[in-house]
Specification:
By secondary structure, the chain is α/β, with parallel strands linked by helices. The protein folds into three domains: 130 residues, Fumarate Reductase Iron-sulfur Protein, Chain B, domain 2; 258 residues, NagB/RpiA/CoA transferase-like (Rossmann fold); 60 residues, no CATH class. It has 23 helices and twelve strands. 42% of the residues are buried. The protein binds iron/sulfur cluster.
C-alpha cells in the first residue's frame, strides 16, 4: 500500500474512533439530506428539473473553450479585468500581486472552495494581507485554524458546544454571547461588520458565470457574499473554469436545483448577479447619479489547476458538478468518517473523483475505494452525475497503472483463474466454506486472517451455510423428482 493510502486508512481509523464526530455528522448531514428530499418531493417534476440542469451543464462543458472566450470578452467589455491562472501557484501570484500593487492590508472573503484549493489565505497572509473569512462556518474554521470538512457546511464536524468554547477562548466571548446559536451569530456579525467597512479587497468564489453577459452569480445564505462584493474598493472573484453556462436560461435551470440539493431551500437567501464593476455617472445603464455601490475594480481569475486535463477523459462528467454537497450528505461512508478523513479539499464521493482527476491518481486513487457503490450519491446529484461509474473509472485506471496494493494485484489474477473454471471454482468454494466454518462462533466469524481481517475489523461475517446455493438447489430438485 502507498504512503498516501496508509495515511488515508489511519485518518479513517481516527475518525471512526471519534464518537463526537459521528454524532455531529449524523445530525447535520442527516438534516441536510432530509431537507433535500423534502424540497425535491415538493417539486412537481423534480426529475425533469434535474434533466434540465444536467443538459445545461453538459452543453456548457461540451463547448467550454468557446464559452470561456465569450465570457472573457463580455466581462472585459463591461469593465472587468480577466486573468487566466493555469495552476494554483498562478492564482496565488495573480491575486497577491493585485493586493500588493494596491497596498491592500485587509481582505474579506466569502466562502469559496476554489480559494481553499489554491491555498490563497496562506499566500495573502505571507504577502502581508490579513484575510478575514466572513461566512459564519468559515469564520469558525479560521478561528480554529482548522479546515472545512464539507463543501457547503464547513463545520459539520463541530457541535454547538465546540463553537461556544472556541468563541470563549479566541474571542473572549461571555456566557451570554454563547448562550445559543443566535447569540453566537450576533457576536460574529458584530465583529465582521467592522471588517467589511475597513477592507480594501473582497474575495469570492463563483457559483456560475454567464457567458453571454460576462456576469458572475454568487449565492449565499448570510448576505456576506453581497457585502464582500460591494463594499471593498477592489473585488477578486476566483472562477473554476468549468463553472460556466451559456446564458440566463441555463443559469435558471441550475439554480432551480442548486439550493434544493444543498440545503433544501427553494432558493438561497441571496442570489447575486454581478455584471462589471461599479458604474459611475454617465456610464451605460448607470443613470445620472451612477450606481451607489459596487467595487471600483472587478478582477476575475479563471482557474484551471488540472480541470482541462480532465476534459476528454472518462472522468469529464465530474466537470458538471455544481458543488452542492448533496452526495456527501447521502454517502454512508462520508456520514461515518466526515470530510477531514479524505485528506483533500473536496471530500465525499465528488472529492473521490475530483481529487484524483485534478491532482493525479498516485496520491488520491485510494479515495475511490471508500465507497460501497450503493448509488445514493448518483440518486441525489442535481445534475445526475454517475458518480459510482466515475469511482469505478478511477479504480480501473489505478489498477491499470499498477497502483492497487500488491496483495490485490497478486490476488486478482489468481481469483480470475479460479472463477473462470467452474469445476475448480466449485471445489475452491467448498474448501473455503469448510475452512471458514472452522472459525465460526454462534454462526458468526469475528476475525478473519491476513488482509481479510480488514473486513472483520469493524463488523462480523456470517458463517457460510453447510451447503452452497447450488448444492441446496440440486438437493431440492432431486427430492422433488
Ligand atoms: S457531484 Fe452532484 S451531488 Fe455531488 S457536489 Fe457535485 S453536483 Fe452536488
Amino acid at each position: 500500500m502507498t504512503e498516501a493510502a496508509l495515511a488515508f486508512h489511519r485518518r479513517i481509523d481516527a475518525a471512526l474512533a471519534d464518537a463526537g464526530l459521528r454524532r455531529a455528522l449524523a445530525l447535520t448531514a442527516g438534516r441536510l439530506a432530509g431537507g433535500r428530499a423534502a424540497a425535491f418531493d415538493a417539486l412537481t417534476d423534480a426529475d425533469a428539473c434535474r434533466d434540465d440542469a444536467r443538459r445545461a451543464r453538459a452543453g456548457a462543458i461540451a463547448r467550454l473553450d468557446s464559452l470561456l472566450d465569450q465570457f472573457a470578452r463580455e466581462a472585459s467589455a463591461r469593465g472587468c479585468t480577466v486573468h487566466w491562472a493555469e495552476t494554483a501557484a498562478d492564482a496565488r501570484r495573480i491575486i497577491t500581486g493585485i493586493a500588493r500593487e494596491r497596498n491592500i492590508r485587509l481582505a474579506v472573503k466569502s466562502k469559496s472552495m476554489a480559494t481553499e484549493e489554491v491555498e490563497l489565505n496562506e499566500a495573502l497572509e505571507q504577502a502581508g494581507v490579513r484575510v478575514v473569512e466572513t461566512d459564519l462556518g468559515e469564520f469558525v474554521v479560521q478561528l480554529a485554524a482548522d479546515r472545512p470538512s464539507h463543501i457547503i457546511a464547513p463545520i459539520v464536524h463541530l457541535s454547538r458546544q465546540d463553537v461556544a468554547t472556541l468563541f470563549q477562548e479566541k474571542l473572549g466571548a461571555t456566557a451570554a454571547d454563547v448562550a445559543d446559536i443566535p447569540s453566537m451569530t450576533a457576536l460574529a456579525r458584530r465583529l465582521l461588520r467592522a471588517e467589511f467597512l475597513q477592507a480594501g479587497m473582497g474575495i469570492s468564489g463563483v457559483n456560475l458565470a454567464v457567458a453571454d453577459t460576462g456576469s458572475l452569480c454568487i449565492v449565499t445564505n448570510e448576505g456576506n457574499g453581497r457585502l464582500t462584493s460591494t463594499l471593498p474598493r477592489v473585488h477578486v472573484a476566483l472562477l473554476g473554469l468549468e463553472r460556466i453556462v451559456p446564458g440566463a436560461a441555463d443559469l435558471a435551470a441550475v439554480l432551480t436545483v442548486l439550493a434544493r440539493s444543498a440545503t433544501g431551500q427553494a432558493s438561497s437567501v441571496y442570489t447575486n448577479v454581478m455584471t462589471g464593476p461599479r458604474r459611475h455617472h454617465g456610464g451605460p445603464g448607470a443613470g445620472p447619479a451612477g450606481e451607489p455601490d459596487g467595487p471600483e475594480e472587478l478582477h476575475i481569475v479563471i482557474l484551471d489547476n488540472g480541470r482541462s486535463r480532465v476534459l476528454g477523459t472518462p472522468l469529464a462528467e465530474i466537470l458538471y458538478c455544481v458543488r452542492c454537497g448533496a452526495c456527501l450528505n447521502a454517502c454512508p461512508v462520508y456520514r461515518l468518517i466526515g470530510g477531514h478523513a479524505y485528506g483533500g479539499v473536496y471530500p465525499g464521493p465528488v472529492g473521490s473523483v475530483v481529487m484524483p482527476g485534478l491532482h493525479g491518481l498516485e496520491d488520491w486513487s485510494e479515495l475511490a475505494h471508500a465507497s460501497s457503490l450503493c448509488g445514493a450519491c448518483r440518486d441525489v446529484c442535481p445534475v445526475k452525475i454517475d458518480l459510482p461509474h466515475l469511482l469505478l473509472e478511477v479504480r480501473r485506471e489505478a489498477a491499470s497503472r499498477q497502483l492497487a496494493p500488491l496483495w490485490i494485484r497478486a490476488a486478482m489474477p489468481a481469483y480470475s483463474a479460479v472463477a473462470t473454471r467452474p469445476r475448480l471454482y466449485r471445489w475452491a468454494g467448498r474448501a473455503a466454506a469448510r475452512l471458514a466454518r472452522l472459525l465460526q462462533q454462534d454462526g458468526w466469524i469475528r476475525r478473519l486472517p491476513g488482509p481479510l481481517g480488514a473486513w472483520t475489523a469493524s463488523r462480523d461475517f456470517p458463517a457460510p451455510a453447510a451447503r452452497s446455493f447450488v448444492e441446496e438447489h440440486q438437493a431440492r430438485k432431486a427430492a422433488a423428482r
